[in-house]
Description:
Layout: H1 2-15, H2 17-20, H3 24-68, E1 78-82, H4 88-97, H5 104-114, E2 123-127, H6 133-142, E3 150-154, H7 161-169, H8 176-184, E4 222-226, H9 231-246, H10 253-260, H11 264-277, H12 281-296, H13 304-311, H14 347-354, E5 363-366, E6 374-377, H15 380-398
Antiparallel strand pairs: 1-2, 3-4, 5-6
Helix pairs in contact: 4-5, 7-8, 11-12, 11-14, 12-14
Amino acid sequence: xxxxxxxxxxxxxLTDPQLDKPQQPxxxxxxxxxxxxxxxxxxxxxxxxxxxxxxxxxxxxxYLGHTLSPVEASxxxxxxxxxxxxxxxxxxxxxxxxxxxQSGTVFSYYLKYKKEGAGFxxxxxxxxxxxxxxxxxxxxxxxxxxxPETYKFTVPEGLTIIQIADxxxxxxxxxxxxLLELANNPAQLKSVEGTVIPPxxxxxxxxxxxxxxxxxxxxPETYEIRIESSTEQVVIRLLQELxxxxxxxxxxxxxxxxxxxxxxxxxxxxxxxxxxxxxxxEERAKVAGVIYNRLKKKMPxxxxxxxxxxxxxxxxxxxxxxxxxxxxYNTYQNAGLxxxxxxxxxxxxxxxxxxxxxxxxxxxxxxxxxxxxxxxAETYKQHLxxxxxxxxxxxxxxxN
Length: 400
């Protein structure tokens, strides 16, 4: 009986619906509720994140929009200079310093976004607060810089320092006396900020008897100079032009100096002699060759233009007494080259002195027939015949 009661009792415990129903269904309901809550929490978390991100993005956009908006408008004109070769980030800082934009950093990123800045032009700009960033970009891309007031002058080929000083000085824009001081003491040009002095200036020797150290180095050209430029800046500009012209010569031109056996200063001296002696371009290299030939033979050059320079005045006709003038520039009385150039040579005269024509000529004389050409000779006897022929042509031309 005990066994049966135990068996019945065991079966009842397994099959009684009052025991089965409350357990398993109650557990399932609790599980489903938890999963739903998690999904809802995940949804709301996601939604909140989206709102936060949208709010942050909106805030960023509002900040960028505000920062890129024009600053408070003003009639005050801001002038500033954009140097050559500076980065767009540096330009952004300049604009911020001038009070034209609100943030140089944001403007820099805006330029990258717009793929702008690489084409900005250097120069001096004038802008007023209140201008838009896009208008700033447009102006700098177009190079809408301030056009400074300028004046023009021309330095003809073959002029001396004194003549150049007279031309520029007469315009009333520089100090003529100061120019001549600088011509004798170019070391003072080093004090001028923001300018580059060509290296050849320091290589000019101080030869005994030189009139002006910069004689021959102020290049003959037509110039346009800012009105506010100082005398020092004008002198440097003329020196820089010579440097610019030298850069157009063949790359081996410095090696050619060694082949000719001359220094750069001696080259410029020979070029100045050619400039003063020759009118026709086709004769320049030939006359340069005569000068080199006479130097090699240690013959006096006997060039009239050097006597004219020594006299400090131009004479239509030199007399024998003039050729006896005591001066280191007088090539009738002194062998070799004068202490320095006697005038500012053109680039064609410099080329002729650099690449002289190889001949055996030692003499030349003007034809005097109105052609401005010369008769060349290898011997003194031939030279005398050329002089007679030239004088004959002169009589035929003038009828005297």
